[in-house]
Design goal:
The complex is a heterodimer.
Chain A lengths: L6 E3 L2 E9 L4 H15 L2 E7 L14 E9 L10 E6 L2 H7 L3 E10 L5 H6 L6 H4 L6 E5 L1 H8 L7 H5 L2 H12 L5 H10 L4 H21 L5 E3 L8 E7 H16 L3 E5 L6 H8 L7 E4 L3 H13 L3 E6 L1 H17 L3 E7 L16 H6 L8 E4 L5 H16 L2 E7 H5 L1 E5 L46 E3 L13 H16 L16 E8 L3 H13 L4 E6 L1 E3 L5 H5 L2 E8 L4 H9 L5 E5 L8 H13 L2
Parallel strand pairs in A: 1-8, 2-5, 5-6, 6-7, 10-11, 10-12, 12-13, 13-15, 14-15, 18-19, 18-21, 21-22
Antiparallel strand pairs in A: 2-4, 3-4, 9-16, 14-20
Chain B lengths: L26 H15 L6 E5 L14 E4 L5 H11 L4 E7 H7 L1 H10 L3 E7 L34 H7 L4 E6 L3 H13 L4 E6 L11 H4 L4 H4 E4 L6 E2 L5 E6 L2 E6 L21 H7 L8 E8 L5 H15 L5 H5 L4 E4 L1
Parallel strand pairs in B: 1-2, 1-3, 3-4, 4-6, 5-6, 7-11
Antiparallel strand pairs in B: 5-11, 8-9, 9-10
The chains are: A alpha/beta, B alpha/beta.
C-alpha cells in the first residue's frame, strides 16, 4: 500500500457518512465501524435516519446518516462534532455542516452538486461558501462519473453501477485512515455469493475510491488512530436491541424456562421482536400480535402458563399497554415490558432519542400500581439489564419495565462476549406440587413474592384475574383486604431494593459537583466529566440503572456533594422523582429535548457556570 | 391434547366459589352445560384453562375447578391466544360476550379467528351490556331502546356467524342457553375440533334484555322458528317435521314437504365440513320471519392451527440450526480476539 505522508496520530476520530436515505449510508458506516473494531479500536456508532423510508430525494429531511466514533481509548458516545464528513449530496452537507469540527475534512460527490440539487437543499450560491467552509479540507470528488468509468467494462445496468458510489466513498475514507480493505471485500464475497459480478463491481469501486484518494493527495492530513488498550478476550459488535433480545434468551436459559415474546412492530423497538423471531433455534416462541394490547396480553397469557414472557414497545405502545400492565401487577405474574424510548408525546419524533417516558413507566396506570423500573445505559449493557429485568420479574413475581432508547437500540459497540457460566442462576418460585390446595396469594416472607402455579400441574387449579382477591384467591371487595393487598404489592416492589447493587460514583467520592444521569445518556455525560476532570474541575458522576426502587445508598452518596445536577433528555422527570424520594437535597437540572443527545459542550459549559456560581 | 379415560361427572368441575349471577340468568344453564361437556371429554382438570374478559359471563372461570384467568375488557382472545401458543397441551376455553368480543375486543376477536388458534370460544350473546346495566351492544337489533339509545339504536348490528366466516373462521356453531343437551353436544364437539371454534350462545339477560330471544326460541314457537342442523342430515324443521330448506337459484328457500311435489329427498343435506363457506354463510345469517334461525354446528372445517404451526416451525428450525444454546449464539457470526 502507499507510503503515507503527514500522518497525524489521534486519540479519537469521528466520521459521519451522510446521503439520501437510498444512498446506502447505513451499510457504508457499518462496514467502516466493523473493520475499525477488527483493527482493535474502541468504537461507538449511531445510525440516524429519517422516519420516512424514502423521503423526497435530495431534500434535507431525507438525509440519512451514520456516525462512527473510534478511538485509542475508551469511547462512550457516537461523538458530536465530526472530523470527517462524507456528503453524497448538497442536502447532506446542509444537514451536517454545522457538526463538522473546525478545519475538518469534507468529502462530497461533486457530480451531485448540480444547480438543481443545490437549490433543493436550500442554498442560493456555492454551498461551501455559504457555509463558510472554505478553510476546511474540502475534497470535491466526481464520484458518479468515476464509478461509471471504473465499471464501464462490467456490462452492468447504470442503476447498479451508481449503487456502488457509497463503496467508492468508503474506499476514500479507508485510505484516509490507513485501513485494510480485506474485511469489506470478504463481506462482498459473502453477501453476493450468487452474484459474482456485483461482488466484483463493489470491490472495484472500493479500490477505485482508495486509489483515487491516494492519487489526488488532496486527502491530507491522514488520521491514524491506534488500537485501544482493551481487556483481553473474545469480542463482537452488537447493538442495543440485539443485546436486549439476547439478554432475555440468556435469562430464560438460566431460569430453565421457555421464552415467549408477544409484540407489535414499532420504531425503534422492532429490532427486539425481529431478533427473537429469528431465534427459533433456541426455542423462542414469538407472537406478532394485531396490536400493542394484544402483544402484552398474549405475553401475560404465556406468563400464566409458566413461560418467561416479554413484550417490547416504544412510548406510544407503552401507553396502550397500561391497562394490561395493571393486570400483570394484580395477578402478580412475571413480565418484562421493554420501552425503547423515542421523542414524544404522541407520534412525536419516532426515530429520535429522548428520556421522556420515565413518568409513564413509573406512574402511567390506574390505581396504586407499582412496577420495577430499570434502565440500561449502553448498547452492550442492554444485555445485562434485560437479564436483570427478567431475573427480578421471575424471582419477585412482578412486572418490570426496562427502559432503553433509540440511541442504545441502534447504537453499536464492541462487546466482550460473556460466557453463560459467568451469569447468575435464576430460580423461578414455582409452587410446591404437594401443597394442595394452592393458595394464590400466599407469600415468601422475605421478598413477599407469591408462588407460581402453572396449568398442567395436578391439584394446583386456581383462578386469578384483575379483580381484587384475598389471600386464598377469592374475589374480595372488603375495604380492609383491598388496603392490605395494595400495601403488600407496594412493599413487594420496594423490597427489590434488597436485591440490587448500590450506585457508584465515578470520580471523587465527595466534592463540589455531582452530575446525576440515568439510563442511556451515560456515555454523553461521562465524556464531558472526564474532560472537566482533566481540566482540573471537581466534578463527579453517578448514573442510575435502577429507578424503582432506587438503590439504598442514594442519601449516603448525595450528601457528600455540594451541588447535585440531574442531566436528562426531558424537562426534569428524574429530578422531580428524586425531589419526591429524597427531599433532603436540592437538585439542579440540565435538560435538553431536541431529539438528540447532549453534546460535550452542553454539559461542560453548564457545569463550569454552576461551579463558578458557588 | 390426548383425551384420557379419566371418568368425571359434571360435579367434579364445580369450584368452591359462590355463583353470583342473577337468579334466572342464562349463564347458570351455560355453566351447567359446560360442566357436563367437560365431564364427557374426560380431559384432566389441570390441563384445562378458562380465560375470560370482562362482563357478566366473564365471571365464568371462578366457578370451575380448572385453571382460570379473569382478564380485562376485550382482551380474552389475546390472553387465551398467549396461553394456548405458550402451551398447546392445554385445553383452552375463552369466555366472552357480545360487548367483550365484538366491541372493545373486536380486533382481537377477528385475529384469533383468522389465525385459527385452537381455542373454544364461548360467545354469550344477550344483545345488551348487562354488567354496566343496560346499554346497547354491537349485536343489539336496530331500533332497540336502551339507556344509551333512548330513542332506539340507529346502528346496524353484527351477525356473529357472518363475522366469523368473514374472518376466515373454520368453526361456527349456534346454541341457546336453555337447550342443555344441544349445548353440551356442541361444546364437546368444539373442544374436539382443532382450531378456533366459535360458539354463539343466545343467552338471556333476565334483568336488562329479558326475552330478547323469545320471539324465536320461545317454547311455543321454537319448533317452527328454528332449525337444528345435523351433519349429513336433511335440513328439516317444524313441529311436525314438515318443513325444510332448499336452494333456489342463489338463495335458500323454506318449503313445505308435500306441497308442490316436494319430498324429504329434495331438501338440502347439511355439510359443515365443506370448505367453501357459501351455504354455511347463508345458514348462519338466516333470520326470522323469512327463515328459521339455525342452531347446531354450522361450519367445522379442518385446518392448520396457529399454535401447532408455531411449535412445528420451532422444531424444524432447531433441526437445521447449528446454534443449540446461548453460548453458541454468543460466539456465532463475526467475532475477534483481543490478546
Amino acid at each position: 500500500m502507499a507510503k503515507r505522508t503527514d500522518v497525524i496520530e489521534r486519540e479519537e476520530v469521528v466520521i459521519r457518512f451522510s446521503g439520501d436515505s437510498g444512498d446506502g449510508m447505513q451499510l457504508t458506516g457499518t462496514l467502516f465501524s466493523d473493520s475499525a473494531a477488527l483493527f482493535g479500536n474502541d468504537v461507538s456508532t449511531f445510525p440516524d435516519y429519517p422516519a420516512e423510508i424514502r423521503a423526497p430525494q435530495g431534500s434535507v429531511g431525507g438525509v440519512s446518516g451514520f456516525t462512527v466514533h473510534l478511538g485509542h481509548s475508551e469511547i462512550n458516545t457516537p461523538g458530536d462534532f465530526s472530523d470527517v464528513l462524507v456528503a453524497m449530496n448538497p442536502a447532506a452537507l446542509r444537514a451536517n455542516a454545522a457538526w463538522v469540527k473546525e478545519g475538518g475534512t469534507i468529502i462530497y460527490d461533486a457530480d451531485n452538486f448540480t444547480e438543481k440539487n443545490i437549490e433543493k437543499a436550500g442554498y442560493k450560491n456555492d454551498p461551501i461558501k455559504e457555509e463558510n467552509l472554505e478553510s476546511y479540507n474540502i475534497i470535491a470528488a466526481p464520484i458518479g462519473s468515476l464509478v461509471k468509468e471504473a465499471l464501464k467494462d462490467f456490462g452492468l445496468d447504470p442503476k447498479t453501477v451508481l449503487r456502488t458510489k457509497n463503496m467508492f466513498a468508503l474506499g476514500m475514507v479507508y485510505w484516509l485512515f490507513d485501513r485494510s480493505l480485506d474485511y469489506t471485500e470478504a463481506f462482498f464475497d459473502k453477501k453476493f455469493h450468487n452474484k459474482a459480478d456485483v461482488a466484483n463491481a463493489n470491490k472495484v469501486a472500493l479500490r477505485a475510491g482508495y486509489y483515487y484518494a491516494e492519487t489526488i493527495e488532496a486527502l491530507h492530513p491522514v488520521y491514524k488512530v491506534l488500537p485501544a488498550p482493551i481487556a483481553k478476550g473474545k469480542y463482537r459488535n452488537i447493538n442495543g436491541n440485539t443485546a436486549t433480545a439476547w439478554g432475555f434468551i440468556a435469562a430464560a436459559e438460566k431460569a430453565g424456562l421457555k421464552l415467549f415474546i408477544g409484540s407489535y412492530p414499532i420504531t425503534p423497538a422492532t429490532g427486539i421482536l425481529e431478533e427473537l423471531a429469528a431465534r427459533k433455534d433456541l426455542g423462542v416462541i414469538s407472537f406478532q400480535a394485531e396490536d400493542e394490547i394484544a402483544g402484552i396480553c398474549t405475553a401475560i397469557g404465556a406468563s400464566f402458563t409458566g413461560r418467561l414472557a416479554v413484550t417490547s414497545t416504544s412510548g406510544p405502545g407503552l401507553s396502550l399497554k397500561s391497562e394490561a400492565i395493571g393486570l400483570a401487577v394484580m395477578t402478580e405474574l412475571p413480565l418484562v415490558v421493554v420501552d425503547v424510548q423515542r421523542g414524544g408525546p404522541s407520534t412525536g419524533l419516532p426515530t429520535k432519542t429522548e428520556q421522556s417516558d420515565l413518568f409513564q413507566a413509573l406512574y402511567g396506570r390506574n390505581g396504586e400500581c407499582p412496577v420495577v423500573v430499570i434502565a440500561a445505559s449502553t448498547p452492550t449493557d442492554c444485555f445485562d439489564y434485560a437479564f436483570e429485568a427478567a431475573r427480578i420479574a421471575i424471582e419477585h413475581m412482578t412486572p418490570v419495565i426496562l427502559l432503553t432508547d433509540s440511541y442504545l437500540a441502534n447504537g453499536t459497540e464492541p462487546w466482550k462476549i460473556p460466557s453463560m457460566k459467568e451469569l447468575r442462576n435464576i430460580k423461578p418460585p414455582f409452587a410446591d406440587p404437594n401443597e394442595i390446595p394452592f393458595v394464590p396469594y400466599k407469600r415468601d416472607a422475605e421478598k413477599l413474592a407469591r408462588s407460581w402455579a402453572v396449568p398442567g400441574v395436578p391439584g394446583l387449579q386456581h383462578r386469578i384475574g384483575g379483580l381484587e382477591k384475598d389471600t386464598e384467591g377469592k374475589v374480595s371487595y372488603l375495604p380492609e383486604n383491598h388496603e392490605k393487598m395494595v400495601k403488600i404489592r407496594a412493599e413487594k416492589v420496594a423490597r427489590v431494593a434488597n436485591d440490587i447493587p448500590d450506585i457508584t460514583v465515578l470520580g471523587d467520592q465527595s466534592g463540589d459537583l455531582l452530575l446525576v444521569g440515568w439510563g442511556g445518556k451515560y456515555g454523553f455525560i461521562i465524556t464531558p466529566v472526564r474532560e472537566l476532570r482533566a481540566e482540573g474541575y471537581n466534578v463527579s458522576f453517578v448514573n442510575f440503572n435502577f429507578i424503582n426502587p432506587l438503590p439504598k445508598n442514594v442519601n449516603q452518596v448525595f450528601k457528600r456533594f455540594k451541588k447535585i445536577v440531574v442531566c436528562e433528555l426531558n424537562l426534569g422527570q428524574f429530578a422531580d422523582y428524586l425531589r419526591m424520594k429524597h427531599q433532603e437535597f436540592t437538585y439542579y437540572q440540565i435538560n435538553k429535548v431536541q431529539g438528540v443527545p447532549f453534546t460535550i459542550k452542553d454539559i461542560k459549559d453548564k457545569c463550569i457556570k454552576m461551579l463558578e456560581e458557588k | 391434547m390426548e383425551e384420557t379415560s379419566v371418568k368425571f361427572t359434571a360435579k367434579d368441575f364445580k369450584s368452591d366459589q359462590e355463583v353470583r349471577w342473577c337468579p334466572g340468568c342464562g349463564d347458570h344453564a351455560v355453566l351447567s352445560s359446560v360442566q357436563r361437556a367437560l365431564a364427557e371429554l374426560g380431559i384432566p382438570k389441570e390441563k384445562i384453562a378458562f380465560i375470560s374478559g370482562i362482563g357478566c359471563s366473564s365471571r365464568f372461570p371462578y366457578y370451575l375447578d380448572t385453571y382460570g384467568f379473569h382478564g380485562i375488557h376485550g382482551r380474552a382472545s389475546a390472553i387465551a391466544s398467549g396461553v394456548k401458543t405458550a402451551n398447546p397441551d392445554l385445553s383452552v376455553w375463552q369466555i366472552t360476550g357480545d360487548g367483550d368480543a365484538l366491541a372493545i375486543g373486536g380486533n382481537h376477536f377477528i385475529h384469533v379467528v383468522r389465525r385459527n388458534v385452537d381455542l373454544n370460544i364461548l360467545l354469550f350473546n344477550n344483545e345488551i351490556y348487562g354488567l354496566t346495566k343496560g346499554q346497547f351492544s354491537p349485536t343489539s337489533g336496530k331500533g332497540l331502546v336502551t339507556k344509551t339509545s333512548p330513542f332506539g339504536t340507529i346502528e346496524e348490528p353484527f351477525s356473529v356467524g357472518e363475522l366469523v366466516i368473514g374472518a376466515k373462521g373454520k368453526f361456527f356453531a349456534r346454541t341457546i342457553d336453555t337447550n342443555i343437551s344441544l349445548s353440551t353436544r356442541i361444546y364437546a364437539e368444539a373442544a374436539r375440533h382443532k382450531g378456533a371454534s366459535v360458539i354463539e350462545i343466545l343467552q338471556n339477560c333476565v334483568i336488562f334484555n329479558d326475552g330478547i330471544h323469545e320471539e324465536v326460541t320461545g317454547k311455543e314457537v321454537r319448533d317452527e322458528r328454528t332449525i337444528i342442523l345435523n351433519q349429513g342430515q336433511p335440513m328439516i324443521f317444524g313441529k311436525n317435521n314438515d318443513k325444510g330448506l332448499i336452494l333456489e337459484g342463489l338463495k335458500l328457500k323454506v318449503v313445505k314437504i308435500g306441497e308442490n311435489g316436494i319430498t324429504e329427498k329434495d331438501l338440502m343435506v347439511h355439510d359443515a365440513t365443506e370448505p367453501n363457506p357459501g351455504i354455511q354463510y347463508m345458514l348462519a345469517n338466516m333470520r326470522y320471519p323469512e327463515y328459521p334461525v339455525a342452531f347446531g354446528i354450522i361450519r367445522a372445517v379442518p385446518g392448520f392451527t396457529y399454535d401447532s404451526s408455531v411449535h412445528q416451525q420451532i422444531e424444524d428450525v432447531k433441526q437445521k440450526s447449528k446454534i443449540k444454546c446461548m453460548d453458541d449464539l454468543l460466539m456465532s457470526g463475526s467475532t475477534w480476539k483481543v490478546e
